Amino acid sequence: MKITVDFEECLKDSPRFRATIEEVEGDVCELESKLDKLVKLCIGMIDAGKAYNAANKQFVNGIRELAQQSTKDEVIESSLTKFAESLQEMINYHTILFDQAQRSIKTQLQTFVKDDLRKFKEAKKQFDKVSEEKETALIKNAQAPRNKQHEVEEATNILTATRKCFRHIVLDYVLQINVLQSKRRSEILKSMLSFMYAHLTFFHQGYDLFSELQPLMKQLGGQLDQLVVDAAKEKRDMEQKHSTIQQKDFSNDDTKLEYNVDTDNGIAMEGYLFKRASNAFKTWNRRWFTIQNNQLVYQKKFKDNPTVVVEDLRLCTVKHCEDIERRFCFEVVSPTKSCMMQADSEKLRQAWIKAVQNSIATAFRDKGDDSELDRKSSTSTGSLDSGGEPKERSLKGESALQKVLAIPGNVCCCDCGQPEPRWASINLGITLCIQCSGIHRSLGVHFSKVRSLTLDTWEPELLKLMCELGNKVINQIYEARREELGARKPQPGDPRHEVEAYIKAKYVDRRFVRRPSDEELRSKVVSLSKQEKRLSGNSEHMPPKAPPPTPKLRPGSNASGQSVKSADSGIQNSADGSREMLATTPSNDSLADAEPAETPPMPMPATLPPPSPCKEMVFYEPKEYSPGLQLYWASCARSLPDMAEALAHGAEVNWVNTEEEKRTPLIMAVQGGSLVTCEFLLQNAANVNQQDAQGRGPLHHATMLGHTGQVCLFLKRGANQNATDIEEKTPLSIAVEAANADIVTLLRLAKMNEEMREAEGPYSQSGDETYQDIFQDFTHMASNDPDKLNRY
């Protein structure tokens, strides 16, 4: 209720005025209490809203994770992703609503209470004070004696002054009351109306959002009805099948339950057998065996690569084994080895023997007398990545995320600009949002290899690769002509099909890549071939102490210069250092058996000429300039941006320089001495075993140059350490000749592990753990602390 006070009435200071003032003061006091309560309730509502938004965000993230887990079901993935996006929009609308509540209710009403009500209270204090003074003056004036003139005059003067002050104060007080009574209406209504309009906007936005979503929801509703019907039908079929199989009598033919035959996939037989290991302990292990495509293979787990027992069944025989203690045993004998196996029953043994014999007969019938064996080492072991579970000591989660996002441009998605990306393409070296990462996956691993920055484990060399490139560098290559062509870059929230079309144009068609002219390409290649600024003065790259024999150079090359410092360099040790490093090799019996006893001790090398690093090679004018030649010299110069540019221009990652002894970019990366450069080429499908004109692959060159980190990397990536060059030298014989203890240790351990993979009993498993530990140590030292590989 609006209460106003008459100005003339206040001058009379009548009881009516005093009653009105008392009523006004009570009303204002109650108003202040109600406003304070409303502001506190608004603060509570906002805090609860923020907590609701936080919980809602976690719920939406859970929906996104469920969508990500359902990538094989396109309907669920796309639907949940769309629902998550819509719910995220609603969270944004809620945030706006709570911000408006803060401005309209809390801030505005608090200002009214603190400013206007404070002025009223101050005016009331002055009014109460002057009222008391006036009352005192009136009493004193009334009590002044008639016969004391000076007291009468004094009392009269005080009364006059007090009345004058009272009139001034009471008029101000009445003005403050009337202004407050008028303003309270506008302030309260203005605040609440603003809040209600915020609600109106919120519900309009939500209505529009879900109106767009409604067709999808109706479509899914129709599909859901059919899915319920299909699920009920499948349940009935499963129950019927379950009942039929349960009633079936397997008592006379239970052997067939122990193995499978899949003629459509060429599987003659598969099932579990016990296999006797070839180690000294002759342990027995249960493995899943398969006869398929003229081969006998086995697996420990389904995800493991099959281990080949017999590569060609035409060359083997099968026989019963009755001269050992175990029952139901049989042996498959090939020209090079034999494999002892045990079935669970006599029927199963007969079934396996018959299956092997039939497969041998079938192989001869299908292939006749053709002796060419085209299946060699494709399924054989020898890579560090297979066999057993490696011990994870690489970066994972927030550590990798922080390092990668610190690179310029990486804080937003490379393709659409979405902030806080949590995915990466490891062969491109860019960060991606979840939507773009899904599109990259659909391109295939030959275009983009996607990995999570928070969920996956990151090896140190791969993390360094990501930090060498980044969104800014790659976009300068793959979006060089985007603005020139008038192509619009996607923005966060754009429809998926638009983003997908842009990404395919960018990476598959490479529509926005600027093709260099012949002169520009020539200038780039010449510049890279002469580039020395990163080949010298870099403390990360340490030279070998006593380098191995010099690789052959073209005529005119300088073999007397300083050796290149390399992050991956191994070291040539003294005799004491060699013995010390070899002492760290696993010493259990199985490991000892794996290495021939007649291996000669490593001699001390004589004074050898320094290796021929990249910067000492003489550049000759080639017959033709090509992106492959740019990749070749950029790999030597350790320039990852130039390498990425060459690949974008169509360079073949395994390009062969016929004018330079058939060297490849990967071999030149070894010469350049960079572990990260080698990792980049391997991630882009470089062949780790491709040889040059001297018959030397990357592993040969890394061993000759003493690059321990590169040797470790190539062994992890499946390099063939048994390959020989034209001088019949293997990497191990080269390392032994050069007395490089670290590299000898790595090569011997890899060879031992390869020989021991068939026997995975409790004793040999300890050897595998030692093997993994040592390789992990070398990996971390090569990437994070290369000085430790400098053993003087």
Automatic annotation (TrEMBL):
<keyword id="KW-0863">Zinc-finger</keyword>
<feature type="compositionally biased region" description="Polar residues">
    <location>
        <begin position="557"/>
        <end position="576"/>
    </location>
</feature>
<keyword id="KW-0862">Zinc</keyword>
<dbReference type="InterPro" id="IPR036770">
    <property type="entry name" value="Ankyrin_rpt-contain_sf"/>
</dbReference>
<keyword id="KW-0175">Coiled coil</keyword>
<dbReference type="InterPro" id="IPR001849">
    <property type="entry name" value="PH_domain"/>
</dbReference>
<protein>
    <recommendedName>
        <fullName>Arf-GAP with coiled-coil, ANK repeat and PH domain-containing protein</fullName>
    </recommendedName>
</protein>
<feature type="region of interest" description="Disordered">
    <location>
        <begin position="518"/>
        <end position="610"/>
    </location>
</feature>
<feature type="domain" description="Arf-GAP">
    <location>
        <begin position="398"/>
        <end position="520"/>
    </location>
</feature>
<dbReference type="InterPro" id="IPR001164">
    <property type="entry name" value="ArfGAP_dom"/>
</dbReference>
<dbReference type="Pfam" id="PF12796">
    <property type="entry name" value="Ank_2"/>
</dbReference>
<comment type="function">
    <text>GTPase-activating protein for the ADP ribosylation factor family.</text>
</comment>
<feature type="repeat" description="ANK">
    <location>
        <begin position="694"/>
        <end position="726"/>
    </location>
</feature>
<dbReference type="InterPro" id="IPR037278">
    <property type="entry name" value="ARFGAP/RecO"/>
</dbReference>
<dbReference type="GO" id="GO:0005096">
    <property type="term" value="F:GTPase activator activity"/>
</dbReference>
<dbReference type="GO" id="GO:0005886">
    <property type="term" value="C:plasma membrane"/>
</dbReference>
<dbReference type="Pfam" id="PF01412">
    <property type="entry name" value="ArfGap"/>
</dbReference>
<feature type="region of interest" description="Disordered">
    <location>
        <begin position="367"/>
        <end position="394"/>
    </location>
</feature>
<dbReference type="InterPro" id="IPR027267">
    <property type="entry name" value="AH/BAR_dom_sf"/>
</dbReference>
<dbReference type="InterPro" id="IPR004148">
    <property type="entry name" value="BAR_dom"/>
</dbReference>
<keyword id="KW-0967">Endosome</keyword>
<keyword id="KW-0040">ANK repeat</keyword>
<keyword id="KW-0479">Metal-binding</keyword>
<dbReference type="InterPro" id="IPR045258">
    <property type="entry name" value="ACAP1/2/3-like"/>
</dbReference>
<feature type="domain" description="PH">
    <location>
        <begin position="266"/>
        <end position="361"/>
    </location>
</feature>
<feature type="compositionally biased region" description="Basic and acidic residues">
    <location>
        <begin position="367"/>
        <end position="377"/>
    </location>
</feature>
<keyword id="KW-1003">Cell membrane</keyword>
<dbReference type="Pfam" id="PF00169">
    <property type="entry name" value="PH"/>
</dbReference>
<dbReference type="InterPro" id="IPR038508">
    <property type="entry name" value="ArfGAP_dom_sf"/>
</dbReference>
<dbReference type="InterPro" id="IPR011993">
    <property type="entry name" value="PH-like_dom_sf"/>
</dbReference>
<dbReference type="Pfam" id="PF16746">
    <property type="entry name" value="BAR_3"/>
</dbReference>
<dbReference type="GO" id="GO:0008270">
    <property type="term" value="F:zinc ion binding"/>
</dbReference>
<feature type="repeat" description="ANK">
    <location>
        <begin position="661"/>
        <end position="693"/>
    </location>
</feature>
<dbReference type="GO" id="GO:0010008">
    <property type="term" value="C:endosome membrane"/>
</dbReference>
<feature type="compositionally biased region" description="Pro residues">
    <location>
        <begin position="598"/>
        <end position="610"/>
    </location>
</feature>
<feature type="compositionally biased region" description="Low complexity">
    <location>
        <begin position="378"/>
        <end position="387"/>
    </location>
</feature>
<dbReference type="InterPro" id="IPR002110">
    <property type="entry name" value="Ankyrin_rpt"/>
</dbReference>
<keyword id="KW-0472">Membrane</keyword>
<keyword id="KW-0677">Repeat</keyword>
<keyword id="KW-0343">GTPase activation</keyword>
